[in-house]
Task: inverse folding
């Protein structure tokens, strides 16, 4: 019911950037090859995510807006989460606090549209769309005025959205991303664009790194490829000379999911301890893959923390793999 959804929304959706994250993750889960994001006024008045993924059939559209109705797990194995999201919470939450319209077409089905505003759902109606899904969220938090007050400036929210999109784009180098600011109306202004990368995973990642952090970073980054006791660590770590004055160039992922985890950030810092002064932050894009049972990624739906069953093991893997790479590069 709408009240419960509004309360849940407070957990899942903190700000426009968290709505963008949920919608883009849904597009990724749908197998999209290209994802276009349009925002206006820091995402406060408009967030629109267009994908060329599998789409939703007309009969499934109301279900997509129902609480805990997810097509992704059956609920019996909550720990075994390989795809994104706090299951079945995002769309109902967004529909409870904003004006949400989903237009979609699945293979072999007709295109259809459903709308929900402040929790009031309308009937499914026919629509025109070639393929994929367009999710449009207008007037986020119009139904919860108290939350509206917590929004920061358009500029700050736009910046947070940029950050979220870049992190997701880093994790998915084979997918093309476009972020457009349509605040002024019309076609708007492209603020980030990354075409789908090709080659093997390292090629693709290297190309995406160059796109996001610059060619200079990518050309001076050390390839990381290590494994220990069921944990795989891959990615790129920059030479100490390419460190930054803040943590802006740290991209950490666990099972494909962007995280900002204290343990991992600490391990990264530890690996560079001998090579960097305290006011410098190493630049790296690191991917940890492990059996989902060895990590809990759902500590909190809107937070990007994780809980490893054996934190010491993960820390040791990161520190030793990066130190090896750095000493191999003459440090
Ligand atoms: P979850 O992602 O946890 O399943 P959501 O509320 O985010 O929950 O989405 C509910 C359901 O709607 C998904 O399980 C999926 O079946 C469908 N869905 C949402 N977005 C898309 C999309 N872009 N393409 C195809 N299906 C989607
Ligand atoms: Mg989701």
Result:
């Amino acid at each position: 019911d709408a009240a419960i959804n509004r309360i849940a929304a407070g957990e899942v959706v903190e700000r426009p950037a968290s709505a963008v994250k949920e919608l883009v993750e849904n597009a990724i889960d749908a197998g999209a090859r290209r994802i276009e994001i349009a925002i206006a006024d820091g995402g406060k008045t408009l967030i629109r995510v267009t994908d060329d993924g599998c789409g939703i059939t007309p009969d499934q559209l109301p279900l997509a807006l129902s609480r805990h109705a997810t097509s992704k797990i059956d609920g019996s194995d909550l720990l075994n989460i390989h795809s994104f999201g706090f299951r079945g919470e995002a769309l109902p939450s967004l529909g409870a606090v904003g004006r949400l319209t989903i237009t979609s077409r699945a293979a072999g089905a007709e295109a259809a549209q459903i709308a929900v505003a402040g929790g009031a759902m309308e009937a499914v109606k026919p629509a025109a769309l070639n393929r994929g899904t367009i999710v449009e969220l207008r007037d986020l938090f119009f139904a919860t005025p108290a939350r509206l007050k917590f929004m920061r400036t358009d500029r700050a929210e736009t910046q947070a959205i940029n950050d979220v999109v870049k992190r997701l784009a880093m994790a998915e180098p084979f997918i093309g991303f476009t972020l457009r600011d349509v605040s002024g109306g019309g076609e708007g202004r492209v603020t980030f664009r990354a075409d789908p990368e090709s080659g093997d995973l390292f090629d693709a990642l290297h190309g995406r790194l160059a796109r996001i952090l610059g060619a200079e970073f990518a050309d001076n980054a050390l390839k990381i490829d290590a494994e220990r006791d069921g944990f795989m660590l891959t990615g790129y770590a920059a030479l100490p000379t390419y460190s930054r004055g803040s943590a802006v160039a740290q991209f950490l992922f666990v099972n494909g999911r962007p995280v900002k985890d204290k343990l991992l950030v600490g391990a990264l810092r530890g690996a560079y301890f001998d090579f960097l002064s305290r006011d410098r932050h190493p630049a790296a894009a690191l991917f940890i893959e492990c059996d989902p049972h060895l990590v809990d990624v759902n500590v909190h739906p809107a937070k990007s923390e994780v809980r490893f069953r054996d934190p010491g093991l993960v820390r040791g893997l990161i520190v030793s793999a990066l130190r090896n790479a750095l000493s191999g590069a003459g440090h």
